[in-house]
Amino acid sequence: MGMNVAQKVISAHLVEGRMVPGEQIGLRIDQTLTQDSTGTMAYLQLEAMGVDQVKTKRSVAYIDHNMLQQGFENADDHKYIQTVASKHGIYFSKPGNGICHQVHLERFGVPGQTLLGSDSHTTTGGGIGMLAMGAGGLDVAVAMGGGTYYINMPKIVKVELQGKLQPFVSAKDVILEVLRRLSVKGGVGRIVEYTGEGVKTLTVPDRATITNMGTELGATTSIFPTDEMTKTFLEAQGRGDVYVELQPDADATYDEEITIDLEALEPLAALPHSPDNVKKVKEAEGIKVDQVAIGSCTNSSYLDMMRVARILKGRTVPAEVSLVIAPGSKQVLTMLAENGALADMIDAGARILESGCGPCIGMGQAPATGAISLRTINRNFKGRCGTASAGVYIVSPETAAVSALEGKLTDPRTYADRVDLSVQLPEKFFVHDNMLIPPSENPETVEVIKGPNIKDFPVNEALGETVEGKVLIKVEDNITTDHIMPSNASLLPFRSNIPHLSNFCLTPCDPDFPARAKANGGGFIVGGDNYGQGSSREHAALVPLYLGIKAVLAKSFARIHKANLINSGILPLVFENPEDYDALTLMEDLIIENAIQQVKSGRVAVKDAKSGQEMAFRIELTDKELQVLLAGGKINFIRQAQ
Ligand code: F3S
């Protein structure tokens, strides 16, 4: 039977399992990327695993998120990442070289290869025909060490693109249309594969805008086939040699299908506060705009910037609007500077920010209180851009630029008679990789520099025969990872400093918990239903590990947090009888005897050490999770496997 593009790339990298939707598969990873806010932890994990040189074909460490260096913390992180990359065979992209996904597409992406990145928008690589997925830092570290990456085989959704976009309608409107139809949950457990005649009309940067925001669909990833357009892009980057053609077989089948007529698409906007709250710009037109931000990994390519410059050329941003533009990479910024487009932007009254994430996460331009901000970014959840009261609209660069000039949300097609937007890809991109530092040729001579903000990563011990300790905290239902490990702006610079973060663990529930845990040398957490819901934050398991937590006894666990606890070697035990929760008291001494045997059996008896009274718990693990837990976490498991 014929295969689609996603199946072709998966089957070429399949280490374990069958390509049956829902079944677990193991994939070989060719490339990895990290950014600075997740990278420090990933490299501390890589070091803890004892990996000398990375086993991937290419790994790159980018600095693009935390570029404001008000104190030593970010600078320490950057120094650490640069030196650890140099020592272990990893390229280092200096601050200012650009946003990880934009630079990776330009300089490293290879069609048909797998890419795992510690950033959810790693899916951008699908625009060049990579199977590119976002993951936690530990998974990325494991992949760098040559380990397999496990996912459940997704369903493949075919999005058939017909026709050609009208002028002033762009790739951003395509993905907004997909979001409008499928919603932010529509891609869960799925890979979105684009096909059809319309694909040929989209350049690689256009395709990358679409695959970037596949993340907002909740999709595992999105992928385009490769063709002449891909080849032309790679040749213009001086990398034509890595091109391979990837097309679905004529008899390829898909699990689901939708069709989009590009010709019929109109400029769209995602209204506050969700990327799938999509309306035609025409329907929301006229809303007064306070601020416009153009850039981010979704829309900061050379083509995006050139179209914006054409719209702004010879015009002026009105007094009441603040416009910021952050070109996506040094390559893009240099080309704009050389061809005069940058001068057009500056002259129109735009503020130019360095090439990085910047305003996407509120750095360099957060909206004013209650302001309306138009942005070319990918998500507009409340507070995402730094101001919870702001209304953020997600739009295309064309809509953003025209609306900035008009001071109100405006359909960009109103400029169709005034501006020629037929910008072409350059025959040659400007290539000067002096901000991309290759790894050292003499890694043994490289000293990894760890400033005071870089602290070693906590590693557990193999599960012992007896697990004992006190109940150190008892919390209610629906405790989130934000309760377990708060992540406010003042704590953000300490992502690589677990000892510091430990002083804040579960403090929204009980301010004395960290001190109690330290005084008692660790012990147990008791939780209610849905313990650990919220984000995939690994720190919510690493920090309890640092505090000596051996098991969490809960009525139920959020899926990802349970996986993170297992990766840290902490037992996630579920009450057999939820009413037993009421009987447990703070500082009660608990003991699990014969722990290894009990965990293997899936049934664990926890005893009150004084009265000997038992409570029954379940522990539900896959074979692999059991091995990880017995080894004392994933790092130990990998060390053993090496
Ligand atoms: Fe950066 Fe925003 Fe993309 S933080 S990686 S530009 S989603």
UniProtKB/TrEMBL annotation:
Similarity section: Belongs to the aconitase/IPM isomerase family.
Residues covered by the Aconitase/3-isopropylmalate dehydratase large subunit alpha/beta/alpha domain: 7-283
InterPro entries: Acnase/IPM_dHydase_lsu_aba_1/3, Acoase/IPM_deHydtase_lsu_aba, Aconitase/3IPM_dehydase_swvl, Aconitase/IPM_isomerase, Aconitase_4Fe-4S_BS, Aconitase_4Fe-4S_dom, Aconitase_put, AconitaseA/IPMdHydase_ssu_swvl
PROSITE patterns listed in its UniProt record: ACONITASE_1, ACONITASE_2
Domain Aconitase A/isopropylmalate dehydratase small subunit swivel: 524-577
Protein name: Aconitate hydratase
EC number from the UniProt entry: 4.2.1.3
A GO MF label: aconitate hydratase activity
